[in-house]
Amino acid sequence: MLEPILIVSIGVVAAIMANLGIAVFNDGLRPIVPENLEGRMTRKELSVTAFAMSFGLVIGFGIPISIAGSILLIHSILLGTDIIGLTFNKGKINTAIAGVLGGLYGAGIYLGLQAVVKVFESLPLNFVDGFNLVGEPVVVSFMVFPAIAVALQFTIKKGILTFLVSAIARQIIVFLNTEELISIGDAPVVLSPEGIALVVGMTFLMIFAMKEKSTEQNLSQLATLFVDRVNRIKKNIWLIMVSGALISAATNLLIIAGDPISLNLLSEGRLSEGGIAALAKAVGFVPLIASTAIATGVYGPAGFTFVFGAGILAPNPLIAAILGAVIIFLEVYLLSKMAKFLDRYPGVRASGENIRTAMTRVLEVALLIGGANAANAIVPGFGFYAIAGFYLLNEAGGRPIVRMAVGPLGAIAVGIIGNILVLLGLFTPPA
């Protein structure tokens, strides 16, 4: 019973925090929440905005990725609880209602994922195995994002340099693993090529970013300007710590994952690599999340997302929960120092948005390729045709479906169409 209890608890706590304006998961919503808290936006306007910004990502991104890996992508839960919490006005009764609905939503997502996978497995054309290919390119492609972020912020030449050095580092690790040249005693040590490439890329990004410094005269003084908002986060730290503990424990049990990359690694049983990927992603998002938290006084239910890496690498759920709570505590109480650091290095602060843009672009391409491969494995030939058509028609129609969702949703559609073709006798499933 521990798994559903954790998911329900995460839903309850996250919905309550969203309702009270303490924390929301959607980075785009964080700057908008204070508009309501300070009386410049009605709750109805805020709830409509939250729905518009998050619902499509839940349906088109979070749930399809979760089905592909049989592990819940945290977006499926926390984007939904953002909507639930922000729908109700603040108040003891409304906050309690938001919490109850958040818990029910978490239970529905947890049980619904299992039900959907079982339904897919029982169909005449079982496309679960084929659909699992959706995430295959994501792990390898993800190592490109630091180079893209460098290119966006520091010129294409530096981006190409970062890409080439990262690629070379990856191939060196592949060679060392193949030849078993690294060992402890008689046991060969296998390193993650993609993880090393990611670390190399992030190193280049941080070096370029930290070359840009502010003088004493032009410091923006984030810490001074937003001291009241940082104190507001500290005031609510206990509830955020509970959220961090629950999320870390659930990650340890492999119920949830914080991003598609670590999710796919965990679904393949590559726990250490998944932990490294989760931590690397968290490092990349620190400037963005720290800046928005300091400026708005609204935190995230998973903090800087280090709780996911800690949960993966912890030996058991109890230790994971303790680590999750401690990590959130340290993050919140270091916010003022982070503000001073971001003041001193504006290049690092600016890198946050570029990192987010780079990750989005990489995921758009990787999930489109993965969706095409999955669709073609389900219905050979027709799969490539369907995904190409789906993508181009979506673009021609003004992109009603976010690009990241086209591949996964297209693969599901091909699986459903394939089953219809089997029932009509127009398609024989591959052996």
Explain this structure to me?
With 431 residues, this protein is mainly alpha-helical. The chain has two domains: 2-126 and 216-344, no CATH class; 130-213 and 348-423, no CATH class. 52% of the residues are buried. It has 21 helices and four strands. It starts with a helix and ends in an 8-residue tail after the last helix. The strands form two sheets. Strands 1-4 form a two-stranded parallel ribbon. Helices cover 75% and strands 2% of the residues. The mean pLDDT is 85. InterPro entries: Uncharacterised_YhfT (IPR019733). Keywords: Membrane, Transmembrane, Transmembrane helix. Pfam families: YhfT. The chain crosses the membrane at residues 6-25, 95-113, 133-152, 159-178, 190-210, 237-256, 276-299, 306-330, 365-393, 405-427.
Query: Total strand count, please?
Result: 4
Helix content: over 70%
Radius of gyration, in Å, reads 22 Å
pLDDT averaged over residues: 85
Q: Structural class from helices and strands?
A: mainly alpha
Identify the overall geometry: globular
Strand content: under 5%
* Order of neighbouring strands in the sheet with most strands: 1-4
Q: What's the number of structural domains?
A: 2
- Contiguous runs where pLDDT drops below 50 for at least 5 residues: none
Individual helix count: 21
Run of helices and strands: HHHEHHHHHHEEHHHHEHHHHHHHH
Main β sheet profile:
2 strands, parallel
Tell me the distance between the termini.
Answer: 38 Å
